[in-house]
Amino acid sequence: MHLRPLDQSAKLKDVLYEIRGATLTEAARLEAEGHAVLKLNTGNPAAFGFEAPHQIVRDMIAAIPTAHGYSESQGIQSARRAVVTRYETDPDFPVFDVEDVYLGNGVSELITMVMQALLDEGDEVLIPSPDYPLWTAMTSLSDGKPVHYRCDETQGWQPDLEHLESLVTPRTKALVVINPNNPTGAVYPRETLVALADIARRHSLLLLADEIYDRILFDDAVHTPLASVAPDLLCLTFNGLSKTYRVAGYRSGWMVVTGPREHAAGFLEGIQLLASTRLCANVPAQHALQAALGGVQSIDALIAPGGRLHEQRDVAWRGLTSIPGVTCVRPDGALYLFPRLDPEVHEIHDDARLVYDLLVSEHILLVQGTGFNWPTPDHLRIVTLPEARVLAEAVERLGNFLSSYRQ
Questions:
Q1: Residue 4 within any structural domain of the chain
Q2: Does pLDDT of 19 surpass 60?
Q3: Are 349 and 327 contained in the same domain?
Q4: Which neighbouring-strand residues pair with 126?
Q5: How many domains does the chain have?
Q6: Which residues form the Aminotransferase class I/classII large domain (predicted)?
Q7: What span, in angstroms and rounded, lies between the C-alpha atoms of 395 and 23?
Q8: Domain region containing 386
Q9: φ/ψ of residue 148, rounded to 5
């Protein structure tokens, strides 16, 4: 019997997600041979000893006997009310109610739904470079065109506003803002967000605010929600439990809709349709939201001076900047470092090959900068979740590797 060849869809041609890319396959092979691989490629707190807050676990366990049926497509009322309450503590955040909240199987599902509801073939979305690559991937998969605006490393990875506005065309529909930023850890000041909102206002753009790291802030960094400086614009704010509450595997995210709706009725109906077709987000994890968003915020002790996340960021940053030919903007938020390899010292032509060779030699798994839609092969992303001593050793081994590495 002759079977017709089955190839992947042409829509996947330009889709990349190097955080879990081909090098991960080699890492799995090394582990199968008995090697220990230090995985600094994904922001997975559970892999590095961060326990789920006991209040969240307790509430999920208590809800399981009654959580086996479908919920409302947008999510259970009490969980959505908890999201509303979370933002009511910010007097500048636009007023919204439970019907403006959508719960998802992580933020990733909600991003996918939004792009599918929004884009026709050739519609453009402005996305930062470097970016969290899911935004670019989902734009492409929804037949849209990702257009990357530059973030300036010499200015602490702030968006290049002039470059951004020069990219707007009649086909531009939305502006993505990732703040705090993944992979750079930049936290945008209020004036930058006001300027971004002004650009969106001039060109009638939908604002898409990825704020999953909004409570992972260091030193004197302050997070300003994008919606709070653009109450007159339609803004979708994305957040969830994966990072702040260290329960990435629960896949519990939310999206908040603020601003005027009249001009976007069709788009919002599309989101509602897609929310219904996936039936609902997983129900046990929805029951985690009320416990997580109320009461003591356990992240505060971790990010304070002397806290584990604060110490790990500092140890990794100091180690990286002590390597000859390596510079790194110290992140103000999130869980990553995005160091630069000076081309005059480290002549790298293929950063994916560098990451692969580092894995084979040192059994350390990173992600290359081009995997975040950065245009040149001179950056790496490093996760700062391991204990400080583990990070210090890993960075030292990276420095030793670079000292003799040639392409």
A1: no
A2: no
A3: yes
A4: 147, 175
A5: 2
A6: 37-398
A7: 19
A8: 10-50+301-404
A9: -95, 125
